Amino acid sequence: MMANEALRRHRNSQRWTQTQVAERVCAQVQAATGRDPELDANWVSRLERGAITWPSGDYRAALCAVFQVASEEELGLYPKGSAAPDERPAEEAPSDDVRSLAADTELSARLARHAAETNVNALVLEQFDADVERLARDFVSRPLPLLIPEIRTARGAVFRLLEGRQRPSQTRHLYVVAGWLSGLAAHVSLDLGDRSAAATHARTVVQCAEISEHSPLRAWARSFQSLAAYWAGDYRRAGDLAQSGHSEGRGPGAGTIKARLLSLEARARAAEGDNRSALRVLALAHEARSTAGPDELPGVFSFPEAKQWAYAGTTLLAVGGDEQTRHAIGASNRAVELYHAGPEGDRSPGDLQAAHLDLATAYLASGQVERAGAKLSEIFTAEMFTASITIRLRNLAALLGSEPYRGAQPAVDLRAHIHEVTVRPALASNPTEPR
């Protein structure tokens, strides 16, 4: 066993201890592979004594990087069974040209090894895709407190993988998964009434969409930002965001996302008071539905026909007038019918409540207070409301307190009942987070 004087000289020239060399090699291996090796001064001592002459490829590459040399030979490293560099006959010493060629060859070999390293595989990506699909479907009908920990756990796992190394196509795939999961987190925040957190998550979705160049994800992010702006009362921005989603870049992609964006824009334009644009865009939304292909993901990331009719009812109600109010009643009734006819697992309680609220509002506009009360009674039995449903209920209470309803006993009773159900804790209580 022959001591490795070359490695010792390099260490001494840097005035490093064996422990310091081990720490730097560990850091280099972790940065390159994501693994956390357990190397110490004893490992470096064994290298310098010649007990180890040819450590594994990751460690050799790390040593070369730490000491900034072009090849392992400069550090006195050699495979078992071959002569140590200092033992070679003088006539066999390679020329500078040969040394340079060997160094270039080793550099290419190291690059190939580096490119082949990855902390994911097809099975991992397939499982993430399945998890996103399941969570997107469950989001529609399962209580949020049950889903929040699962969404957070999946996001954490993806983010940790992205901090490691993958092939470019795998990295893009992970960013798409991270984008959809951040979209779920954004929806959770909006449903809980935390607009600031929702905006942060939505910006992350946009960033993931840009990095992965994924058009459907980018378009969905715009639809969510439009939704958030609408519930913040910024109708102009809501309409503009939805419009940019279906017109920017390479378009929103296939599926129902274009119908969603146009429906959001129509609703926002109507709330803004631009009735002509609202009706024009609403017609375009129905056209987009007729040509829509299958969605990439189900549940909260899709735009079922029932939801589109619910949006149409809200839009027509905002446009106002006897004729459009009648159309609004028809659209909202159609939404309710479709929700009840569909599978229970695809039935969104919040969307169904929204359709009932639009019907109640439309009946009030038609002077049918008792029919409005009947629709509201179907909502009052719910154990919890999203932030948007709470806003709708309070808006309806304000309407009941205005003329011509002010003072009428049925309207007074309805206002009292709305106040009762909107002051109780709802989705704002999240048992998975610190209070």
What is this structure, in a nutshell?
The protein is mainly α and 435 residues long.
Q: Please summarize the sheet with the most strands.
A: none
Q: Give the rounded overall mean pLDDT.
A: 86
- List the uncertain runs: 427-435
**What is the alpha-carbon Rg in Å?**
32 Å
Please give the number of β-strands. 0
Shape: elongated
Multimerization status? single chain
Report the structural category: mainly alpha
Enumerate how many helices there are, as a single number.
Answer: 19
Instruction: Note the beta-strand portion.
Output: under 5%
The sequence of SSEs as H and E is HHHHHHHHHHHHHHHHHHH
Please estimate the helix content.
55-70%
Distance between the first and last residues' Cα: 64 Å
Structure description:
Helix content is 70%, strand content 0%. It has 435 residues and is mainly α. α8 runs parallel beside α10 (215-231). The relative contact order is 0.06.
Notable traits:
435 residues, disordered C terminus, mainly alpha, elongated, 0% strand
Blueprint of the fold:
Blueprint (H helix, E strand, L loop, with lengths): L4 H10 L3 H16 L7 H9 L7 H11 L28 H21 L5 H20 L2 H19 L5 H24 L3 H18 L2 H17 L3 H13 L9 H16 L2 H16 L14 H15 L2 H20 L7 H17 L3 H12 L6 H14 L8 H15 L12
Helix pairs in contact: 2-3, 2-4, 6-7, 6-8, 7-8, 8-9, 8-10, 9-10, 10-11, 10-12, 11-12, 12-13, 12-14, 13-14, 14-15, 14-16, 15-16, 16-17, 16-18, 17-19, 18-19
